[in-house]
Specification:
The protein is α/β, with parallel strands linked by helices and 230 residues long. It has an eight-stranded parallel sheet with strand order 7-6-5-4-3-2-1-8, covered by helices on one side. Helix 1 packs across helix 8 and helix 2 (43-52) runs parallel beside helix 3. It has one domain (6-227): Copper homeostasis (CutC) domain (TIM Barrel). The protein has eight helices and eight strands, in the order βαβαβαβαβαβαβαβα. The N and C termini lie close together (12 Å).
């Protein structure tokens, strides 16, 4: 438990980013439009946040609600725009109509990231076979984390899956960091930490006033203490 756990906070703008850093976050996930579960922010937003904080920033690459890749040509253009704005870490994930990983779409987008680190997001929680998805993506350049609640329904429903996957760390397809988020609550943290999970992702949990209000420094600090075992 000596290793400091990663605390990643969703930021919608500069105010969120500054508050998250002040509260002790290690990394930000940059998105817009949480009504659609998080889409790619503008290049201007990315640039503004990059100037305001010195945390690692992971930028969502997703143009519409759902897990289909959609317009790949446009997505590739957008990826280039946010890279020019200072983004060098990303979040993405695409499924096909049958719930399998859309490998062609993932490869197309990853191909323009030039090895930048990226997270495969909660599309894994909607996959028909999450083990198969992991193994298909094994060795994909830059992939270093899976953001998952273990279930589409959230951590309460997926806790057993998360604990099982944590126990497989290091196996083929399971070398990436398990980044737990999606209905995560403070009471889940000690159980997950005890199983070796060392990365946590939060959004609404640090916005006491809801998504219409900014991140709370105090709430982030409370999560910082919890994931550090305090």
């Amino acid at each position: 438990m000596s290793k400091r756990a990663v605390l990643e906070v969703i930021a919608l703008g500069v105010e969120d980013a500054v508050a998250a850093q002040a509260g002790g976050a290690d990394r930000l996930e940059l998105v817009t439009d949480m009504a659609a579960d998080g889409l790619t922010p503008s290049a201007a937003t990315v640039a503004g946040i990059r100037r305001a904080v010195d945390l690692s920033l992971r930028v969502m690459l997703r143009l519409a609600d759902g897990f289909a890749a959609g317009d790949l040509d446009r997505l590739v253009r957008v990826a280039g725009e946010v890279r020019e704005a200072g983004a060098d870490e990303f979040v993405l994930g695409f499924l096909d109509a049958g719930g399998g990983v859309d490998l062609a779409a993932v490869e197309r987008v990853v191909g323009v990231l030039d090895g930048c680190p990226w997270t495969f997001h909660r599309a894994i929680d909607r996959a028909a076979d999450r083990d198969a998805l992991r193994k298909q993506l094994d060795g994909m350049p830059g992939l270093d984390a899976y953001l998952t609640a273990g279930s589409a329904g959230g951590v309460d429903d997926g806790l057993a899956v998360l604990l099982a996957e944590a126990g497989r760390s290091g196996e083929p397809g399971y070398e990436q960091q398990l980044l737990v988020g999606g209905g995560l609550r403070l009471e889940h943290v000690p159980v997950l930490r005890g199983a070796g999970v060392d990365a946590f992702h939060i959004g609404g949990a640090v916005r006491p006033g809801g998504w219409g209000e900014p991140v709370s420094v105090e709430a982030v600090a409370g999560w910082r203490a919890a994931v550090d075992g305090g």
